[in-house]
Amino acid sequence: MNAGQNSARRIVASANPFIRDTVCISCRHRLTSSSSRRHAATAAATAQSSAPPSPPPSSTNSTHVPPVTTTNAIQKAYAVLAAPILSRPPLLTRELTSFEKAYYLYQKRLNERLALPFSRYFYYKKGTPGDEIWKRQVKSRKAAAKDIGVYSGYGDEAWNDEVLVGSKLAEPDEIIKALIKDAEGKSVVEDKAEAEEAEEKSQEEVAKEEMNKITIEKPMSRLTEADTTNNTKSLNRKLDRSLYLLIKNKDGRWRFPEDRVYGRENLHQAAERILVQSCGINMNTWLVGNHPVGHYIYNFPPPSKKSALPAGPNGGRLSTVQPNAMVPTSLTAGPKDVEEFGEKLFFMKGRIMAGQVELAKNEFGDQDFAWLSKDEIQQYVTERYWSSVRNVLADR
Amino acid sequence: MALADVTTAFLRRVRPTGPAVFNLQSTCRYASSNTSPADAADLSSSPFQDSSACTPSEKITAFDPAARARALRKRGGRLPPSRYQYRPPRYDRGPLHPHQPPPPSDPASRLFEAGPFSLPRLEQTYHDTLASDFMTLSYTHFPPGESAHQKGARLRPWEGESPYYANRALRGPRGGDVLRLLRKPITFNNIPQLQGITVHSMVKGAVEDSAHLHVAGMVLQAITNVRAEAHATRKAVAAFGVRKDQHVSVTCDLKGEDMYHFLSKCVDVVLPKIKDWKGVKGSSGDSSGNIAFGLTSEDVALFPEIEVNYDMYPPKMIPGCHVIVHTTARDDRDARLLLSQIGLPFYGKFIN
């Protein structure tokens, strides 16, 4: 139960600065500061389990510091990396399922039966053109609602509220068509008499009507040009889904933009820096919260004689971490040699408000980028990476 | 009616209409909507799914129930009473009465209310974007071995020698008898969300002339899509010239779809149009997650439903109103975070 706590405390208290760097700054601060915030019960439990020969605590809120063993043996050390998951939230509502569409239409018709009649005199003054148009339209469609087809909620045939087989009334396209027709002042139902009248009209009359015609702007399509060309670089693709920024790194792997955490910077600062260094400053982004939303652990394979990478005395991978120019604390410390056994990647949640990725400004040697939805990401990344990321990404 | 008649009538209903029609019905999906690919992906493959095989027969396309009923009426017949002429009982006479009213969700019920009619955009945004962001924002990290600070018991036992203190209900907290709501750490199952909105308008003019109240009711109904309810004064106040039981205010309680539509209308259309509007006051709120703001009569006139026929409302009678947003947040800080995610700005000092 207390193993994790003890090891974290040991790392914090140890003199080796390299080991200290493997604990995040906020946790280190909490662990080194007085333990007055700790729950009394936990403190008592720790005291009993870790130091049996020590005298029992005099009071429950006494500050308990677990015994710190200063060992010079190098602990297992991992490279700590931050990876901002930059997303563009859905801009459009989702497409309704067929059941939802049919259900909403039926409810609208039921409402027509139950609602009080439309008070025409309140909305249209007598004798105004609006009043005349309203009367004409209601005569043809029988109901106040414009998007439910020809149906009257009152009278002998009000029971006939179900739509017949093959009717496409509930489709959004049909609803938009009906609403536009209504706004243009035409009746929703195509009257035979009206059609005959239109045929009999002289050319002058037709031209005159064309002049006076009200044109209603149609809503834009849910599909954009980027959708038709499947342009994964565009942020205008898949407007009803969340899109996430994926980057092809110099090894040719598709991952979220990532980099090591340098010096004394924290995950939030690292994520902000990584966005700037990998995608340029032409993006207006916001990182949601200071905490990571997920993590990914990768253990380096044990060193073999064939591998070119130098192996450390403990079987880890030896390398030199160069300071990052954007992190002043790492510059003062200078380059440092580390022996690492793997990497721990922490995902930070971010949102893009405006702008676009500029790969020319990339400092990590990344090759490509793409804005992808959740199901597409699965095809780009490795299975292990996907399993650590899948629950972080929104379904829509 | 003789027994023979009953059985023939019964048999006529039970007898299948014909094997061909029956087969077609069992394998085809007839609806007023297309099947979306998302539906198909969720289902395992079955003959029901194959809509290409569904070309409704002539008999089905020619079917017109209204015309059939008209012809039936002409001949002197009636619609089958079981389906079309059922009236639920006027009163609920208890669970033991043989004639039970249908549940309120049944369209035949007297209590049935139609709806919902749409899936509001704000609701979808909440579930897809805002909720998960809220959880991320309100997360507090405790390193291994640490835990959240636990407050002591708020109710005090009765201490003393009196025998009446034994088994007595606990005393309230010191310094006031109000037990405030406890805020629990936010996890996936207690993310704050919108619960309801109350739009309230107290009309001063209604003391003199009830016309003001009628107009206020119409305005509130128009902007909220909910029937307005008038409230009477409980006490007479001579200073305001108010007598007891005089109707001076109207409210609308919004829930679900109406609530989402109203709030997104406010945030997207009305509030941006208000001149020099600073936002919602940071000190607003009842310290248990409900936040209120006010709209003047000029602001109410900016609602699209009012704007479209502004002239039909009597001049200078459009009321101002209070909008009280109820959330499931346990304190005002969380409620404010939720509302600012939705797009309501706050200004001034934040008080919890």
Structural description of this entry:
The complex is a heterodimer of chains A (396) and B (352). With 396 residues, chain A is α+β, with helices and mostly antiparallel strands. In chain A, 35% of the residues lie in helices and 15% in strands. Chain A contains 15 helices and ten strands. In chain A, strands 1, 2, 3, 4, 5, 6, 9 and 10 form an eight-stranded mixed sheet that branches. In chain A, strands 7-8 form a two-stranded antiparallel ribbon. Chain B has helices at residues 3-14, 19-27, 37-42, 58-61, 65-74, 81-84, 121-137, 211-224, 256-270, 297-300, 304-307, 332-342; strands at residues 194-202, 229-232, 247-254, 280-281, 290-295, 321-327, 346-347. Among the domains of chain B are: 51-114, no CATH class; 194-347, 50s Ribosomal Protein L5, Chain: A. Chain B is α+β, with helices and mostly antiparallel strands and 352 residues long. In chain B, helix 7 (121-137) packs across helix 12. The termini of chain B are far apart. Chain B is extended and about 90 Å long. Chains A and B meet through helix 1, helix 3 and helix 5 of A and helix 5 and helix 7 of B. Chain B: This is Large ribosomal subunit protein uL5m. Chain B: GO terms for molecular function: structural constituent of ribosome. Chain B: Residues 33-59, 73-111 are annotated as: Disordered. Chain B: InterPro entries: Ribosomal_uL5, Ribosomal_uL5_C, Ribosomal_uL5_dom_sf, Ribosomal_uL5_N.
Strand count of chain A: 10
**Chain oligomer state:** heterodimer
Backbone structural class of chain A: alpha+beta
CATH topology-level name of the largest domain in chain A: Nucleoside Triphosphate Pyrophosphohydrolase
**Rounded radius of gyration of chain B (Å):** 30 Å
CATH architecture of the largest domain in chain A: Alpha-Beta Complex
Question: Which percent bin holds the helix content of chain A?
Answer: 25-40%
Most extensive protein-chain contact, per-chain counts: A-B, 58 and 50 residues
Got a strand count of chain B? 7
The CATH superfamily of the domain at 194-347 in chain B bears the name Ribosomal protein L5
Helix content of chain B: 25-40%
At the fourth level of CATH, the homologous superfamily of the largest domain in chain A is Nucleoside Triphosphate Pyrophosphohydrolase
Largest sheet of chain B: 5 strands, antiparallel
Major sheet of chain A = 8 strands, mixed
CATH class of the domain at 194-347 in chain B: Alpha Beta
Poorly predicted segments of chain A: 1-5, 35-74
CATH fold descriptor of the domain at 194-347 in chain B: 50s Ribosomal Protein L5, Chain: A
Rg calculated over all Cα atoms of chain A: 34 Å
Given as residue ranges, the uncertain stretches of chain B (5+ residues, pLDDT < 50) are 16-27
**pLDDT average of chain B, as an integer?**
87
Keywords (chain B): Ribonucleoprotein, Ribosomal protein
Organism (chain B): Acrodontium crateriforme
Domain Large ribosomal subunit protein uL5 C-terminal (chain B): 248-346
GO molecular function, one term (chain B): structural constituent of ribosome
